[in-house]
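Hey L., structure's done. Input below.
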Amino acid sequence: EVTVSKIMQKMTPAINLDELQAIAISNVIKESINTQGRILKQNVTQEEQMENFKILAETTDRKILEFLNKDQKEKYLIFKDESKNQKKTSLKENKNNSFF
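Output:
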């Protein structure tokens, strides 16, 4: 719930979601997070796990895009790219600031 709330706080203004879209998309994200947990618990190789995560991400994106109009779809793709870049940057900073 907390993770979904944080994502939606950033996504809603960035993509200009209305209330119904926000509710629908938050449900898609909740479902995706729950599925991520199930994937992590599966007794499969790391390669299979990564493939499952890739498929899940594609499915989640497709479901989210169904709720968006043309302008919002473009904004969503930009939002997603920026989020990825922020994660990469913060991971690099954490790595560089590590004592190990």
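The chain is about 85% helix and 0% strand. The chain has a mean pLDDT of 90.

-- N.
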